[in-house]
């Protein structure tokens, strides 16, 4: 459809010759997650310039336009076909139900592969959650850093060793190919792109309108449930059982080796064989797990939790949290309980007073 200026009008976008907008196209597949599609439209759709005009146009397309089933009890009517991708500045590929099952290397339906081939050179491409597997299967992530939902990171790494998989972050941005972790991390990803395009002020305004934080501290590591392994009948069972019962005490390699009735060298070798970690790294992980448990389920002050978990001091525990989870104990507690202060003496929220 020709416009008055002689320019071709893109589907879903009104011609605005004096105000070019960035075109975002979302390619959806059957079994799409409605929330992920809504994230794209809500965030990019509410990004405005200083005069209140839209900075983006957002279009949804499918390999075959029409009624597209979702993972909920309703469908989405998609008007545009894959030709919409040909004029995209940014393309987003959300997850679909088919991504939940076991994946195979290079598995992507041929119609989807042909649709992705329509994306113009220089366009930015991004995925939400396990949509990462589509980009990887299409060869778009080779030699790049990427992430996906933490439950699928190991599978992504195994199937695509040429991809630098980072399981801890909420999103990655590697030369205009971006990926994000679980569903809600699509919010972080879209805000990052808006921030990159138009600065923090614009992204912050979008976040305020949507009532979400403009930036989340830490990565998805803080959301991963890592249960303590059962010691079981194994060569290191006695050492692990002893360590778990004495987490709050100073523990050395010699202490664990004594409980296992082996030498320090033998203990270290067997720990690597059974857990994939050295004894002290395993011990640090158990202390971190115990501290997380106490932060989530008790009102104890940080220093008391640090002592109970074997970190010694709140300062030492903060360093471990920053290194492992990217957040402080206070931020972790706030995320999972909505309250708490990072102090050595405890506040009303921590002690239960007030």
Structural description of this entry:
The structure is a single chain. It is built from 14 helices and 10 strands. The protein has helices spanning 34-45, 110-116, 132-137, 153-159, 185-198, 200-210, 237-245, 253-260, 264-275, 279-297, 302-309, 314-325, 329-337, 348-351, and strands at residues 22-28, 56-62, 66-69, 75-78, 90-93, 124-127, 145-146, 164-165, 171-174, 177-180. The strands form 3 sheets. Strands 2-1-5-6-10-9 form a 6-stranded mixed sheet. Strand 7 (145-146), helix 4 and strand 8 (164-165) form a beta-alpha-beta unit. Helix 5 (185-198) runs antiparallel to helix 6 and helix 11 crosses helix 12 (314-325). Residues 1-17 and 340-354 have low confidence and may be disordered.
What's this entry about, in short?
The protein is α/β, with parallel strands linked by helices.
Q: What's the SSE blueprint?
A:
Blueprint lengths: L21 E7 L5 H12 L10 E7 L3 E4 L5 E4 L11 E4 L16 H7 L7 E4 L4 H6 L7 E2 L6 H7 L4 E2 L5 E4 L2 E4 L4 H14 L1 H11 L26 H9 L7 H8 L3 H12 L3 H19 L4 H8 L4 H12 L3 H9 L10 H4 L3
Parallel strand pairs: 1-2, 1-5, 5-6, 6-10, 7-8
Antiparallel strand pairs: 3-4, 9-10
Any descriptors?
about 350 residues, alpha/beta, six-stranded mixed sheet, two-stranded antiparallel sheet, disordered N terminus, disordered C terminus
Point out poorly predicted stretches. 1-17, 340-354
- Strand arrangement within the widest β-sheet reads 2-1-5-6-10-9
- In DSSP terms (H or I, runs of 4 or more residues), the helix count works out at 14
Largest sheet: 6 strands, mixed
Structural class: alpha/beta
Overall shape: it is elongated
Mean pLDDT: 84
For the CA atoms, what is the radius of gyration?
25 Å
Q: Roughly how many Å apart are the termini?
A: 66 Å
Strand tally:
10
Strand content: 5-15%
Oligomeric description of these chains: single chain
Overall helicity: 25-40%
Succession of helices and strands: EHEEEEHEHEHEEEHHHHHHHHHH
